[in-house]
Fold these 2 entries.
Entry 1:
Amino acid sequence: MMVAESLASNNKVLKIRNLSTHYFSRRGVLKAVDRVSMDLRKQEFIGIVGESGCGKSTLAFSIMRLIQPPGKIVEGEILFNGKDLLKLKDEEMRRVRGKEIGMVFQDPMTSLDPLEKIGDQIVETIQMHEDVDKKEALEKAMKLLESVGLPGDRVNYYPHQLSGGQRQRVMIALAIALNPTLLIADEPTTALDVIVQEKIMEILEKMKREGRSIILITHDFSLAAEKSDRILIMYAGWIVEMGDSMKLVAEPLHPYTKGLIESVPDIWLARKIKTMPGFPPDLINPPPGCKFHPRCPKAKEICKREEPPLIEVNGRLVKCWLYE
Amino acid sequence: MASLKAYIATRALLVIPTVIILLTLVFFILRILPGDPIASMVGQKVPPEVLERLREEAGLNKPIYIQYFEYLFNIIHGNFGRSMIWGKRPVIAEIMDRFPATLELTIFGFILSVLIGVFTGSIAAFKRNSKLDASMRIYSIIAYSLFIPWFGMVLQMIFGVYLKILPIAGRITPGVEPERITTLYVLDSILTLNFQALSSSLIHLFLPSLTLGIVLSGAYTRLVRNNLIDILSQDFITAYRARGVKDRKIALHAMKNAFIPVITLMGLQFAILLAGAVLTETTFSWPGMGTFLLERIQYRDYNSVQGAIVFYALFVALISLIVDVIYALIDPRVRY
């Protein structure tokens, strides 16, 4: 709990303590999120970075309590504006979703109901949480579309009539329809081309300026480094490093973070891309000790035996034996 | 919507070759079968000269290809000919007497099969991998493999013979028929506010349409279950939940999406439904096209059988056209 105390301060929108989400399969228990603790301040833009399967999406879905069987949140606390989301009744949690926490999904092509008009989907979302008539909700829907850079008349369009980028704008409009204080974007630009990606990121930054806290989940390290205030690196269900974006890029502490930075292609080809050896571990039978040690160039004897603690170094947190 | 009109026009035009091919097949199959309408009507004790004269009167002595082209020529001019046995009434009049009964039965059977199928399939999908799901799956297999005459008789035994609460034959209690407007008894009795006729015709409809409905629901149960499970795992359902949309509303959205392939099946099933209706009609002595067709095939009444086939073909074509339009109305991706 030493970690928790060092993180504690005011202005926290979200406090996650010791959260574990496991998937129960026939082969065994998969610890997708393994005792994760993190905080998010008001109006903070945080990037959660990691390879596919590291648990970053599971973390996001856990915050929304959208984990479906065979997955289950097995322990921990998710304090959101002071209330523990994991203790809420289903109906109370439903009112939090959309109203207080908005979520944008990875694939805009499949995240909208193909049979309903854009406007109807926004109106339904608004009416789920607020007692307004259809006309009023529709006017609000048009304003929302304009706020994400789409013409208001797109309320009359069906999803298949819009491009991927336009649909992602609609997804953002849906996520902010009720002005939630927290916006979670799960790989919002992965399925889009680079130019559209930049536009979507601009909208997210605007959302932050308007006072919202943002969690951006991405496997794109450079994107997170550019846009977010703080970065959180996940590996095999653990948070292995967490800290200020600038500092983290300038001086990565964890060998995994270093590896990630070195594997980002450089447009000027000033240096060779280094790929990281090996693959993420099988989370049902993870390696003992530090889960990263089989791929770690600096692994010591202790790394193979004991799980490293999360240590504070220069105002950052790192889960590695090198700094003990 | 212009493309929809063109689509409907194409579909309507395609009906013509379909009907001609069907008619050709039926025309020759009927004549390959042993016996002819004259022989089956007058029996075997008639002298051969008389038989020969009667055949000549009916035009059955002409070469078969001449008969065929004459018949096609008449059909194109809307002339279905007359029945070749008994009263020699125009075929079209006989069909008009029988067709509404079949229409009523198939509509009710159709609606019941879809309702039962969607209901059982949805339950199975929402309670996936539960005992309820397993029992719905067993239901769908049993329903799908039921033999209509056998199942109809079981229902007749239970409700008609033991419980004595439902009639087992006929369309309506004789004497209470509603004033004839469309000859659809249910519709006519509603139009004339004749509640005695309404209740009587509904009671008579119950067992036949239930038989038909249950047997045909099995395919829907499976299709709805599998589709709904697929839809429920899609991103947009999670997205609905992430926006705090209530579970009941999400279920409705999911069912609307899962319904699209069901509409396709509805079009395909309709032809099967008509075949099933023939069996149901004979089981429940239902005075419809099925019993008519069966009787006329036995008597080799060429004109009646051919006329009935044209009617069936047009009916199936019309229904599949309606199904396609419904499809376009529900799914915007088809519309534009």
Note: The longest helix of chain B spans residues 195-232.
Entry 2:
Amino acid sequence: MSFPNTVAAEIRKTATLPATMVALAVAVLGPVAITLINAVGVRAALRSGRPELTAYTSPVEAVFSAVPIGTVGAVVLGVVAVSAEYTANRANIGGGRQITTTLTATPGRLGVLAGKAIAVSLLVAVAALVAIPASLALADKIIGGYAPPTPDGVLSRSVGAGIYWMLTALTALAVTVFTRNGIAPIIVLVVNSSLVSVSVLLSHLTPLARFLPDLAGMSMFAGDLLAFDEALAPLPGGLVMATWTAGLLVLAGAVFRWRDA
Amino acid sequence: MVGMLSVERLVKRRGSREILTDVTFRAAPGRVTGLLGPNGAGKSSTLRILLGLDRADAGTALVDGRPYRRLRQPLRTVGSMLDGSGAHRSRTARNHLTWMARSNHIPTRRVAEVLDQVGLGAVGGTRVGRFSYGMCQRLGLAAALLGEPRALVLDEPVNGLDPEGIRWIRGLLRGHADAGGTVLLSSHLISEVDQIADDLVVIAHGRVVAAGPTGEVTAGYPTLEDAFFALTGPTAGGR
Amino acid sequence: MSRSHARAAATELTKLSGLPAVPATAVGTIGAAMVITGALAAAPLGADDPVAVVLQAVPYLQAGTVALGVLVVGTEYTDGQIRTTLLCVPDRLAVLVGKGIAYLAWATGTAVAALVTGLLTARVALSTHDVPVVTDSPVWRVVGAAAYLVLIGSLGLALATLTRAVVPALVVTLSLILVVSPVLGTVTPHARYLPDRAGALLYLPDPAPPLTPVSGLLVLLGWIAVTGGGAAAAFRRRDA
């Protein structure tokens, strides 16, 4: 089977999983819904003349503070793309796992993994292309007239948020190749996409924490929302996160290739 | 009668589709009753209702005259096996049977006994996820035998067993019935049912199309296989 | 508690101890408590009171009890074990009561062990600093933290009963308490009625009027009663 066919098969397989639909819904509807609540809260504070009630007053920040919920969707997408292969189906508990079918259809392990990575990236990109513009438009419509002038860099931060989601999804995919089970990666990565992330905690201990994948990557979109003084600039931050992701994917490829199905 | 299984005018719908229509039959003590029908005929749905897993939309399914959900220690009355092992793959066979025993106040020595009986004595400490399909079937049988029940309800018990295992289970079920127990088993394998069943219930498209002693059901046909296709085929019985 | 409920609870305890993921979660939570309190105590701007340090670690530790709650029910559905469970104990309510008790036992043990480990770690870590260790936070807050951890995890149990799967229940519960709640907390005062924020009054020093620790506990219990009641109703009604 040629590589484009493998990619097409992986896209079809991943996109038709019910869990993928839910993950995409979380990645798209989650940020929009949180943006809505954020924006209504900000508008209420601005209207009553007490902007100090909320942490920020700009519609743009209402959107970017909602990005972590989209990250959860991206994590789920990356995890289920792999873990679904290892889930036993009910009638064949002895060993009826889809990975057997996948690897007999496409014996090239690296092709399968690359196909999955491309499928997940595309799905996340679609989610980001819908969720972020929709959230920006919604926040602008709600806060609109009350808002301070729009800060610069909205476009680059939007792109940064999309790339952050994509790299997070690929990290989740790579980690799930190691564990072959979704539970541990979901716990660790969802906790770490939150505001109480362990990386933020480590940043109080050592400035080296800014080179951790999530803190480095957040600099692509978080701006002042990142409560952390020594953050990297967006571009180097993105590169650091991309390097981590690439490293994990290479490692996952090696493990996937070497291990029995 | 102790161990009698009786199903009376069972109706089950999934959405707008009626998957069981007026299903009625009995499985009597001292006899092996075979529930025979093609894939999707409604065998498993009937057994799931009899075992209290699913609810019927109408009709009753009784064990010793009581619905399964009313039994206080069901494993001591009916032993059952549905597809697969019914165990989480990360636990050991021994742990699986131990928690089952605990739930029905069955002495834990039974765990080792049934493991030996089904030929899994050496792998009691192995995680179920490492079992082959046939071993999962054997574990399911061990679970059915755990409470020394009068009645056995088995869904496709010979699936995945090797020839030696099939012969063994045939002997086991025959012995159980001869000792006065009730055996109800479903299968789509005609030859298997033919060899073991005293009574037959043939089901197709959710309806019972024939029931009675094996000799009566097959009367007028050269073999059970001919009877089966005549009774369950598109021209007969169902819609 | 009737005899059948006691037996159902004993059954569920046997079941949980046979699942490697359950002890692994307990050990992982205790290990996380050690690492996180160690890091918090070592941070230059951190608190200088072991109790305060441990309380700061609670938001991380709740992932552990949530995971326990989800595993108690969710693992029934990964390989169809729920059929075996209901064949053994046909009374649906007894199954849920048994699971609830088994969860309480594991979650309480895990929460207490994690908090005690955290207290000891914080004490040791702080004593390596030159700052004098103070102990002016009331100890009842640690008890409150344990109660909070146990209660918040029971939301995971209820959601796993509703979703009948591990991963969706984990994602919903964890993202609600770790992602959505902090984000909403920065924009709307109504966020204080979310389960984790109301329950946090059990251990956090600063009150969030009009809620007090007692009314916060009642709000959290209200969330648990609503989701748990819905889950129990669905569990009784559904085909296995």
Note: The mean pLDDT of chain B is 91.
